[in-house]
Design goal:
This protein is an alpha+beta fold. The protein contains eight helices and four strands, in the order E-H-E-H-E-E-H-H-H-H-H-H. The chain has a four-stranded mixed beta sheet, with helices on one face. Helix 1 links the parallel strand 1 and strand 2 (about 35-40). Helix 1 (about 20-30) packs parallel to helix 3 and helix 5 (about 125-150) crosses helix 7.
């Protein structure tokens, strides 16, 4: 049985965004059953957990003797054996992988930079000075992504793939803002991804953790 390790509690603003959500969604799309292991913030710093996840983050993915960390690597691994997430054609698979890395490297750092300012340091003088530049850089990337999606429903392969799953999750980090309203193509794309039944199932299971676990 596949096991996904994640936190038993996170603040409200992080619910739906913790990176186990990406893995849950991929497993739902792939039709793979999994169990969950819940940890608290003390366990993440233990030697046993750091042996699995050197940076004390979540999720950790375990399947028999295989242990993986980093959500992007886990998604790629799941997708390799799933026709629902990765096409069979070698060239198309390479394009999906390119867009998977693009979500992680060309967009997420810009999204995360703004989110960290807004959610963790809004009153700091340095953050107030940095925010306009962070927003400008992010808007450039959003405009570039929007230009790609103006003429297609999905990033590549002519259908939903693991690259779309990850890109939609990255865009959702901006949920604390109304920025996507300025990019209707991207908002429609994110909503199209989130309309998938597998996303709803993953989100329900992700949120159920916080309903049953005490703060």
């Amino acid at each position: 049985m596949i096991t996904v390790t994640t936190f038993s509690w996170v603040p409200d603003f992080a619910r739906g965004l913790v990176r186990d959500m990406r893995v849950r969604w991929a497993l739902e799309e792939a039709g793979r059953a999994y169990a969950e292991t819940l940890i608290d913030f003390d366990v993440k710093d233990s030697a046993a957990y750091r042996a699995k996840q050197p940076f004390g983050q979540v999720p950790v993915y375990e399947d028999g003797a295989l242990t993986l960390f980093e959500s992007g690597a886990i998604l790629h691994h799941i997708a390799q054996d799933s026709g629902a997430l990765m096409p069979a054609d070698a060239a198309e698979r390479a394009q999906v992988t390119t867009w998977l890395f693009a979500a992680l490297n060309s967009l997420e750092p810009y999204v995360q930079a703004l989110a960290e300012i807004d959610l963790f340091y809004p009153d700091e003088a340095w953050a107030k000075a940095r925010r306009p530049g962070a927003e400008e850089a992010l808007r450039q990337r959003l405009a570039e992504l929007s230009a790609v999606l103006e003429t297609r429903d999905w990033l590549t392969a002519g259908r939903f793939t693991v690259a779309d799953l990850l890109m939609a999750m990255v865009l959702d980090i901006l949920r604390h803002t109304d920025m996507l309203a300025d990019y209707p193509v991207l908002k429609a794309y994110r909503d199209r991804c989130f309309a998938r039944p597998a996303y709803a199932r993953a989100l329900e299971r992700h949120m159920a953790v916080f309903e049953r676990e005490p703060a």
